[in-house]
């Protein structure tokens, strides 16, 4: 049955950080947005290139 695989269970439990159901964290979208912006800022401050092997 779809949704009962180990990968699906892992996804459900990892996304429960902000709670589930009707009492979820109101700031979860803001927190995720701030994390994305912070990661983008960190990556943009570094000179990233692939190694030539």
Structural overview:
Helix content is 49%, strand content 0%. It contains two helices and no strands. The chain is flat, with a radius of gyration of 17 Å. One of its GO terms (molecular function) is monooxygenase activity. It comes from Lasiosphaeria hispida.
Shape: flat
Low-confidence stretches: none
Please, how many helices? 2
Radius of gyration, in Å, reads 17 Å
- Helix/strand order, N-terminal first: HH
Give the beta-strand count.
0
Helix content: 40-55%
Instruction: Please state roughly what percent of the residues sit in beta strands, choosing from under 5%, 5-15%, 15-25%, 25-35%, 35-45% or over 45%.
Output: under 5%
Class computed from helices, strands and strand pairing: mainly alpha
Look at the structure and give the mean pLDDT: 81
Distance between the termini: 45 Å
The major sheet is characterized as: none
Family: Belongs to the cytochrome P450 family.
Keywords: Heme, Iron, Metal-binding, Monooxygenase, Oxidoreductase
Biased composition (Polar residues): 11-22
Protein name: Cytochrome P450
